[in-house]
Specification:
single chain; alpha+beta; Collagenase (Catalytic Domain); 2 domains; four-stranded mixed β-sheet; 14 strands; binds 2-acetamido-2-deoxy-beta-D-glucopyranose
């Protein structure tokens, strides 16, 4: 909850968060998963809380895009994530992003696990869905609460051929033509150059800068961890400077991935900047604010091949200060830790 308010605060240009109560997520959602056919699942969500709420669907299990919705419980042989990673805004969210979930009234939705993981080897997969969904009160668009859920464990039996076709369809969506023209081409170019500059500064700081600053974001001053973070930043800087070319950046949304309240979205090695992205400054001058360059840093850390393994978005550890709760091992794998650390280095006032 703190994170949501802070994001909101940073978007209207305030430097500091108001102190807010932090009760943690409420365990008010019941989620039951069942297999319909192969990897196609139906979820049934029941609001066990005391009131009707409006759940924020973006980048959650309710998102129409194939964002990560379930975990696969096979520690030895984890299938690769092939879905969509969305960076979303929690500020002034639109009605379109919210779904009213009435108290005790089951809400059904369906999704296909083969759209998020490469299941083309086929066979049985054990899955579970666990997470947190921000919500607003019934007549509000302010995300003031967080609802936690944990589903039953379920075994799905997947036809590898069918799963492979689903993967191919996603890959085709990700390989459309380049589209940056006019003003957006110019802004995108500036953001890319700023990305390179800010990422280099962050890399140097990670290596030899203020240790306390580093610890605030990564929870340790271990030289090995500092080296890893620096190496990832250098790789991002190289990518933004055009010295390596793993990522493709889109200015419009030819693959139709953007949803209301998305800032940007990554599928495979394609980064799409959504309409909101263009409203942010090149680099934010406020602590933990959102800017184009640091958003691009965040997205580029997700791209395969830039610096492996690519980062993730830890659910519930999005934005400041939630990202500072991660262990060092998780923090170096969470995209937001890079974006926000880089922003604090750019501002240079000890955020
Ligand atoms: C909130 O969003 C609406 C449209 O979605 C817009 O008209 C309004 O100006 C926004 N308010 C703020 C404070 O950004
Ligand atoms: C998987 O699906 C394909 C095409 O739909 C079908 O030809 C094949 O027999 C199925 N394989 C299994 C193991 O059911």
């Amino acid at each position: 909850m703190r994170l949501l308010l802070l994001l909101a605060a940073s978007l209207v240009g305030l430097a500091c968060a108001k102190p807010v109560k932090d009760d943690g997520p409420e365990k008010i959602l019941d989620l039951r998963l069942e297999a319909l056919e192969g990897s196609l699942l139906r979820g049934t969500l029941v609001n066990k809380g005391k009131k009707d709420i409006r759940l924020f669907t973006r980048s959650t299990i309710l998102d129409p895009n194939p964002v990560r919705k379930v975990s696969i419980l096979s520690p030895k042989d984890q299938p690769r994530f092939i879905g969509v990673r969305a960076r979303v805004s929690h500020d002034n969210v639109s009605d379109e992003s919210l779904i009213l979930i009435k108290r005790n009234k089951p809400f059904n939705f369906i999704f296909d696990v083969a759209h998020t993981y490469d299941l083309s080897k086929g066979g049985a997969f054990d899955i579970i869905a666990e997470g947190i969904i921000p919500y607003a009160e019934k007549k509000s668009n302010d995300l003031t609460g967080q609802a936690a859920y944990r589903s039953n464990r379920l075994t799905v039996h997947v036809n590898g051929t069918t799963a492979h076709l689903a993967k191919r369809a996603l890959e085709e969506r990700a390989t459309v033509e380049r589209d940056c023209v006019g003003d957006r081409a110019l802004i995108a170019d500036t953001a890319r150059q700023a990305c390179a500059m800010v990422a280099i500064a962050a890399a140097q700081s990670a290596l030899t800068g203020d240790a306390n600053q580093f610890v605030r974001y990564f929870r340790t001053a271990d030289p090995g961890i500092r080296g890893t973070v620096a190496a990832r930043f250098f790789a991002v800087a190289n990518e933004c400077a055009g010295n390596s070319q793993h990522a493709r950046i889109f200015c419009s949304d030819p693959a139709r991935l953007c949803q209301s309240d998305y800032i940007s979205v990554t599928l495979g090695n394609s980064i799409t900047n959504c309409d909101l992205y263009w409203q942010f400054p090149t680099v934010s001058n406020t602590c933990h604010g959102v800017g184009q360059a640091t958003t691009t840093i965040h997205e580029i850390t997700h791209v395969d091949g830039v610096f492996n393994p690519p980062t993730d978005d830890y659910q519930g550890h999005y934005g400041w200060p939630a990202l500072a709760d991660l262990s060092p091992e998780q923090a170096i794998m969470n995209a937001d830790n890079y974006g926000f650390y880089a922003n604090s280095i750019y501002i240079n006032v000890g955020c």
